[in-house]
């Protein structure tokens, strides 16, 4: 499968907003809640702006498949990967324009059908700058890291020398041929494996996982956590199924633990659940 080159151009309206955010006196927009903001602040990070990546992709051409041949529907797989890659590139490009070290995601890549063969891909998050040493905590590819972990989990990973790099996706749309009438009749009253289905589904899953792994390795990741595999049937025709794999890439960083200030995880855990006490309990009167 060949994925067309990504388009990472940010529309003019987006560029205006980002340039405005860089001006002195501009307010920093953020998707963070109060508790998350306080945790990031304790770790030395400050929000510099809300960032969004989006792409609307048209599935071009008609996918012609042989009814008797199991195979990947390259046109559909390529369109999905193109939309996801474009959205992620624009997300990181917006954060880079703001001088961010990283992005804390509000949402993973969301995919929606706009009608017909047009699909929208969108991802959003908050761009963050590391106050003690701006630019010191970017990913190995030079761009802002992308984080999906809870802030408390991220803190513990950083204290052990692990820095998030990016999120990776892999998609595969696979077609299974119809069984003949004779095959269906002979298997109707038997508990029997259907090899063509097993092998095809197995192949499609492996293709999706392999593409996800390859995408995070390009950013220098050494570890992939929170791997998930989603499947959707009937989205691209009868007897076709979409497998979508995603995972969070991490890479080791020397001296990372020394850069991150100490955080009281007891207070942090309460804050993360929006129940942080802002005042002591009143004393009972004797």
Descriptive keywords:
single chain; 286 residues; Translation Initiation Factor IF3; four-stranded mixed β-sheet; four-stranded antiparallel β-sheet; 8 helices
Describe the structure.
Helix content is 33%, strand content 29%. The protein is of the alpha+beta class and 286 residues long. It has a single domain, classed as 2-Layer Sandwich (Translation Initiation Factor IF3), CATH 3.30.110. Strands 1-4-3-5 form a four-stranded mixed β-sheet. The chain has a four-stranded antiparallel β-sheet with strand order 2-6-8-7.
Helix content: 25-40%
CATH fold topology: Translation Initiation Factor IF3
Distance between the termini: 77 Å
Number of domains: 1
**Topology order in helix (H) and strand (E) letters:** HHEEHEEEHEHHEEHH
Give the class-level CATH name: Alpha Beta
Q: Can you say what the CATH homologous superfamily is?
A: Hypothetical protein apc22750. Chain B
Strand content: 25-35%
* Molecular shape: globular
Regions with little confidence, pLDDT below 50 for 5+ residues? 2-7, 273-286
Let me know the number of strands: 8
CATH architecture: 2-Layer Sandwich
Sheet with the most strands: spatial strand order: 1-4-3-5
What is the arithmetic mean of pLDDT? 83
Output the number of helix runs: 8
The biggest beta sheet is recorded as: 4 strands, mixed
Q: Give Rg in angstroms.
A: 23 Å
Q: Name the structural class.
A: alpha+beta
Task: Explain briefly what this protein structure is.
This protein is α+β, with helices and mostly antiparallel strands and 286 residues long. The chain has one domain (27-254): Translation Initiation Factor IF3 (2-Layer Sandwich).
